[in-house]
Design brief:
alpha+beta, Immunoglobulin-like, 3 domains, 5-stranded antiparallel β-sheet, 24 strands, 23% helix, 26% strand, elongated
Length: 498
């Protein structure tokens, strides 16, 4: 027995206050914490020529709880089904004591702490996990996951509490223009069955302090070190893209399952990194070869050579056009090496270009005025997983390209493009993030207690998704199509919470 050990002398409980070793019966374990109905076995080592008497003693406040069954040098203690805390405490303390037969002075008591407050938590409404509250408790949640957490008493009843985050440490070089840039996690305004409800926004860690609202309850506040890590997966299909999504989700603040759902919508669930669509009316006839005529200004270094048309003389090929750009013409084998916009429109009617907003009017204008021109099949197209248009990337997002080059086909999500900082995944979600900030300016920086819950959070993306898609009926229907896909890419945690 050394400093801090509890022992008895003449049935009075005392604590050793020096490092001296006392001659007494040894009992193991010496200190233990049990919850309701848990069982622990104790072993005593008697003095030579002695036998053991076991007893269960009440705590310092005189509260005895549980049952003790003794056999020789062993004893089994069963905690009660209902734990009554000692006065002024959230726990009860009892002592399992072993003494030399016929000599109660020479005895030793192990300390048993009963109950104590616990923390319960779950992810996305799943199964609860429980841990004893302590100063070093860590709870781990997946990026993009929604979770609840609460302080509970010895009966498992949630203790109404206030929740405060402090000392956030956001990991992964999250820029200040990201959504919720300073929040590892944020709290929804509506609690769930008296539990705090939260969203894991960025990788990192943050301290969550849970303080009972009733300061007279005797229940002490608890701190939880909340850690956010990458999920194990986003659903079970197409896991090959999950690892590409996580860093984009972290640096934009867009939940990874939202990103995967939009990728699925854009690619028809194919997740094709080489997904491509030429837009002869909404892009080429509106911005590239007509309208702003970007082929002669901002995009002149990346244009295809043209034949003379009603607007411009024959134009030379841009100095930065490469073979990948030129290969987009091969998507339209109907029309030779320099197809015109009307040739493509008349040969591929199932593309429904004329059904887009303003498409029929634009088409009829070209027919009426015989305004045909060389199709810019690289400049007037959308690319990759996110199907972002080249025009949006350059004009709205000021895309810097790859190593100074801004070829449209660098927006394909090939491994080589992604490794060099290209592809549609990053720039497309940066564009969605920009739209989100426009629609939700007060939320995008500090969302704490401004969003009622997970369903409302999804709704805050409705406007950004609609604008991302464009205009007209298709754009109006687009958010619902993305939202419908989200459950298929549920966030799967990589580990238990505690």
């Amino acid at each position: 027995m050394v400093n801090g050990d509890v022992f008895t002398s003449n049935n009075s409980y005392m604590v050793a206050t020096s490092s001296a070793t006392f001659t007494a019966i040894d009992v193991t374990p010496e200190v233990i914490t049990l919850t309701a109905s848990q069982i622990a076995t104790f072993q005593a080592t008697p003095l030579p020529q002695s036998s053991i008497d076991w007893s269960l003693q009440g705590g310092i406040t005189g509260t005895g709880q549980g049952t003790l069954t003794a056999t020789g040098n062993s004893a089994t203690y069963t905690a009660p089904a209902t734990i009554v805390p000692d006065s002024g405490s959230s726990t009860a303390t009892v002592y399992v004591c072993a003494s030399e037969h016929g000599n109660s002075v020479n005895s030793y008591c192990a300390v048993v702490t009963l109950g104590g407050q616990s923390i319960v938590a779950n992810i996305n409404g799943g199964t609860d996990e429980k841990a004893t509250a302590s100063s070093s408790l860590t709870a781990t949640f997946p990026l993009g996951g929604d979770f609840t957490i609460a302080l509970v008493d010895t009966t498992g009843t949630v203790i109404p509490s206030d929740y405060v985050f402090s000392s956030p440490s956001v990991a992964g070089n999250v820029p200040q223009y990201a959504l919720f840039p300073n929040s590892v996690a944020f709290q929804y305004s509506d609690n769930v069955s008296n539990r705090g409800s939260f969203h894991a926004a960025h990788l990192g860690n943050v301290t969550l302090t849970i303080t009972p609202t009733d300061s007279q309850s005797g229940v002490q506040p608890a701190n939880v070190n909340v850690v956010v890590v990458n999920p194990a997966s986003l659903g079970s299909s197409h896991p090959e893209v999950d690892g590409l999504i996580y860093p984009v989700a972290n640096t934009t603040g867009i939940p990874p399952n939202f990103i995967k759902a939009q990728m699925a919508q854009e690619s028809g669930s194919q997740f094709n990194p080489l997904a491509y669509r030429y837009e002869p009316l909404s892009q080429d006839a509106s911005f590239i070869s007509r309208g702003l005529d970007l082929r002669t200004s901002d995009f002149s270094n990346y244009r295809f050579a043209t034949v003379r048309d009603t607007k411009d003389r024959a134009l030379s090929q841009g100095v930065n056009v490469d073979s990948d750009d030129l290969a987009t013409v091969n998507k339209f084998p109907c029309c030779g090496s320099t197809p015109t916009v009307l040739q493509i429109l008349n040969s591929y009617t199932k593309q429904n270009w004329r059904k887009q907003p303003g498409g029929e009017e634009e088409f009829q204008y070209l027919i009426q005025y015989k305004d045909d021109f060389t199709a810019q099949t690289s400049l007037a197209s959308s690319y990759g997983y996110m199907q972002i248009t080249y025009t949006t990337a350059i004009q709205k997002m000021k895309w810097t390209g790859v190593n100074g080059m801004k070829n449209p086909t660098l927006l394909f999500d090939t491994d080589s493009n992604l490794n060099l900082g290209g592809g549609s995944l990053k720039i497309g979600n940066q564009y969605l993030k920009k739209l989100y900030s426009t629609y939700n300016s007060s939320i995008s920086v500090d969302p704490s207690l401004q969003i009622s819950g997970p369903d409302t959070f999804i709704e805050t993306f409705r406007g950004p998704w609609m604008t991302y898609n464009g205009k007209g009926k298709a754009a109006t229907a687009y958010p619902n199509k993305v939202i419908t896909r989200i459950p298929a890419y549920a966030i799967i945690a990589a580990s238990s919470i505690f």
